[in-house]
Amino acid sequence: MFFLTPVLVAVICILVVWIFKNADGSIERRKGETRARAESRPWVDEDLKDNTDLHQGEEDADDWQESEEDVEHIPFSHTRYPEKEMVKRSQEFYELLNKRRSVRFISDEQVPMEVIDNVIKTAGTAPSGAHTEPWTFVVVKDLDVKHKIREIIEEEEEINYLKRMGRQWVTDLRKLRTNWIKEYLDTAPVLILIFKQVHGLAANGKRKVHYYNEISVSIACGILLAALQITKVCLEEGPFISFIIL
Ligand SMILES: Cc1cc2nc3c(=O)[nH]c(=O)nc-3n(C[C@H](O)[C@H](O)[C@H](O)COP(=O)(O)O)c2cc1C
């Protein structure tokens, strides 16, 4: 009995030390995971990260926003078509969008402002991260402003072609026969510039995070393209509208 006690005490001591060390390690590990989670911004896609996004460090505790719970409820309504009708409509929509083309020659015919308003309103129906609607559409008709935009874009595009994007990009584009000269930016009667808002402003002037802002704006652009395409077809023999990706 006397002989066993010190051994038992030693074993118990080793066990206690081991248990404490493990507990310490897992607390440290958990702290590390929590820190990493706080630093990561899962709503920013790895592919889309650029230096315009809102950085975690820029948000401080004072930026915390209360939930907006008093938002108006807009009832959902939809029509369910019979199967045959669904097939017909989806086929027709595909055929319509399959006619869309990126063109680099543009008509100078005027477009009714109502059409421009409608296609932008349609784009604004897009889904967005946490319903933040992180987009701004700017319509430019003024000749001088259009020309200044052309100059800025051509200057940037020249850098793209000559150094920024690299030889492979220039080689891949050769089949499209494009270059940095974009005279259609002067010709088009209307330019629609689309901006992503990397953050919003709450009523109290504090910053609001715009989750997945680039993806949300990209979806809105796709819907804008579809709206322009359907408009072009509806306006048979009418003004020619197209979408230019700057
Ligand atoms: C993100 C994106 C960037 C593009 N950039 C340019 C561009 O800088 N210049 C250009 O002439 N076309 C540009 N395009 C148009 C593509 O070249 C075009 O979509 C592609 O060749 C397929 O042709 P389609 O649009 O007629 O189907 C771009 C398209 C996308 C989606």
How would you describe this protein?
With 246 residues, the protein is mainly α. The chain has a domain at 87-141 and 189-234: NADH Oxidase (3-Layer(aba) Sandwich), CATH 3.40.109. Helices cover 48% and strands 7% of the residues. The protein contains 7 helices and 4 strands; from the N terminus they run H-H-H-E-H-H-H-E-E-E-H. Helix 3 (113-123) runs antiparallel to helix 7 (213-234). Residues 235-246 have low confidence and may be disordered. The structure holds flavin mononucleotide. Flavin mononucleotide (FMN) binds at residues 101-102, 104, 176, 178, 245.
Outline the secondary-structure elements.
Blueprint: H1 4-39, H2 83-97, H3 113-123, E1 135-140, H4 143-164, H5 167-173, H6 184-187, E2 191-196, E3 199-201, E4 207-209, H7 213-234
Antiparallel strand pairs: 1-2, 3-4
Helix pairs in contact: 3-7
Bound molecules: flavin mononucleotide.
